[in-house]
Write a structure and sequence with these properties.
About 30% of the residues lie in helices and about 25% in strands. The protein has about 180 residues and is of the alpha/beta class. Strands 3-4-2-1-5-8-9 form a seven-stranded mixed beta sheet. It has a two-stranded antiparallel ribbon with strand order 6-7. Helix 1 crosses helix 2 and helix 2 crosses helix 5. The chain is globular and about 50 Å long.
């Protein structure tokens, strides 16, 4: 359904996938975050929303919606603390999906920090994240072009069948992710 994207996370026991769920409802543009998120993830959500508000027309979002809809971002498994900048592109993709009504491509995961200027920045834990995506049966992964060197260090047999998309900008992410 629109508003849901798959992110990749590093944990102290390896990598994992996480779902970012976004729901819009009639309201005044308030942002609600749930799922035991740390400060850095909360900042990523705010950054993603601000980027969309500033650039929504390029993506096909009516700018008037931002003041008429409340936004709820939820990351399930609330008992597990989550923090770090890696979910930035996943949050932005889930938000863009919810606002446009366009679904995120199936079997696609992503990891990367975002900036207000729309850049995608590199993150750590790539090996663990990629292997988690493979275990989960995902077929495509989006990440920063600067993380390509980290993927090259992984034994090719372990990641056979995964297509990697290396990006520099959020627009590239949305062009790949939204169907």
């Amino acid at each position: 359904m629109p508003g849901v994207a798959v992110g990749l996370a590093w944990t102290y026991v390896g990598g994992d996938i996480l779902f970012i769920e976004t729901q819009l409802s009639d309201g005044k543009g308030e942002l609600k975050l749930t799922g035991n998120l740390g400060n850095v993830m909360k900042e990523s959500a705010s950054t993603a929303l601000t980027y969309l508000e500033a650039n929504g027309k390029k993506i096909g979002i009516d700018s008037g919606l931002f003041g008429k809809k409340d936004i709820h971002i939820h990351v399930p498994e609330g008992a597990v603390p989550k923090d770090g900048p890696s979910a930035g592109i996943t949050m932005l993709t889930a938000l863009a999906s919810a606002f446009t009504g366009r679904k995120v491509k199936p079997y696609l995961a992503m990891t990367g920090e975002i900036t207000l200027r729309g850049q995608v920045l590199p993150v750590g834990g790539i090996k663990e994240k990629v292997l988690a995506a493979k275990r989960a049966g995902l077929k495509e992964i989006i990440m920063c072009w600067q993380n390509e060197k980290d993927v090259e260090e992984i034994n090719g047999q372990f990641i056979k069948g995964i297509q990697f998309h290396y990006v520099k900008t959020m627009q590239q992410v949305l062009d790949i992710a939204l169907t």
